[in-house]
Amino acid sequence: MRYRTAIMLLCSLMCCTGSAIAADPPQLELAPIEGSRPRNVVFILVDDHRFDAMGCMGHPFLETPNMDRLAAGGANLTAAYVTTSLCSPSRASILTGQYAHQHRVVDNNNPVREGTVFFPQYLQQAGYKTGFFGKWHMGGESDDPRPGFDRWVSFRGQGSYLPVKSGINVDGERVPQQGYITDEITDYCLDWLKGIDREQPFFIYLSHKAVHANFTPAERHKGRYKDAVVVPPLTMADTPENFASKPRWVQDQRNSWHGVDFPYHSSLDIAEYYRNYCETLLAVDDSVGRVLQTLEDRGQLQDTLVIYMGDNGFCFGEHGLIDKRHAYEASMRVPMLAHCPQLFPGGQTIKKVVANIDIGPTVLEAAGLRTPKHMHGRSFLPILQGRQVEWRDALLYEYYWERNFPQTPTMHAVRTDRWKYIHYFGIWDTDELYDLQNDPLERTNLINSQQHAQTVKQLNRQLFEMLEETGGMYIPLNADRGGIQNLRLRGRGAGHDFPDWFYRDEAVNSGAQ
After folding, report:
1. Are the beta carbons of 251 and 235 closer than 8 angstroms?
2. How many CB atoms are closer than 10 A to CB 186?
3. Checking CA distances to 28, which of 39, 159, 235, 298 falls within 20 to 30 Å?
4. 432 with 62: CB under 8 angstroms?
5. How far apart are alpha carbons 314 and 328 in whole angstroms?
């Protein structure tokens, strides 16, 4: 009843001049969906979670029974992507439903623009109680409460896995972190949920620090996978087969902060690093189980929409790289699970391309609200429900060069059901085209193939049309902030060569001036 009263009030305000609600949030363009009823929503975001690091994705040793439970009782969206593979831009895209060139959060250092609207603000105005728990990581080191949330539990920057004094901001008051961070923010989340009346619609944003480096497993999980065999990716080896058609910047990045020859400017053992990653993820799975159990105890598991996803992927040697940022699958592809038995059947595998910009519209539809016009994403609830709707035939990807990590260039990409076209800006190098249907590991660059010339032309045109339509025909700039990781290891990986098609056997006098 409170929800419907709020909707009626909202519609009444929208019929007026709009001045009464212009400040919070501004330019409100929200309307209820007739005949719908509000669903409770729990959104779980995990840092740097690769798309394949779950038992339900066939992982050889990682155990994720609670994530697998979500997939079995709901949907596994196996073609889920982020539009920028970097913490802050991805998180801003989730909360705004916009590409990074629109919301302007293009790195991890600079703050969100004043007046940026986050979709939980609409939920609040529609009568929802909203809570944020965990990593915010937008706007440098600030963890101040942000618009859209009635309950706020966060920490500065990356936070700490282990207890630190004054480590958590609870509704603006700094308190000590007392336990392992994955467990502690789950405690705060569930304590808040247990205090909410069962008739009150709620939205929870549970945002884990895990599994961000440096990976630190919970004490109960340490050593679980110490004997696990980690097989290096096929594209990791520095061989002509792997790198004959790759851009120079990829080959040169092997010997850098984000490369396998000088990872984080250290002698890091990548296999051991990956084992720690998997052990650290186990506490996240425990957290998912606790959330599901609490919903079940409250009699709300069947009608609550639970969405689980990663904020970006992560490389452990693919193409000679570690970490993220680039447009290869291991970087931009993420896990995404959705569960709500009263809305859609379980056991589904969804292969349509969905993205982080779709989270806001999907949550709003579950709340009975239409997608605001400024959002670039779309609700994927109709896909989960088997409704016939037009869906995107391509997704735009973007990453903007950072002074902090200068080895990765500005790039845009188009990802369709079959093709990926990557277009670089500001460097002397080659673009890339991959047939993901026949080359899922992205080993053979088809950019110079005459057989695929029309595909390249069409995707290039589509890329710039998408940028034009969404206001992205510019390169956003920010002032320098933070350090710079620009070293190389002496004697390892001298500068690499261009692909063969850059060369000619003799000079041609073109007469150009």
Report:
1. no
2. 26
3. 39
4. no
5. 10
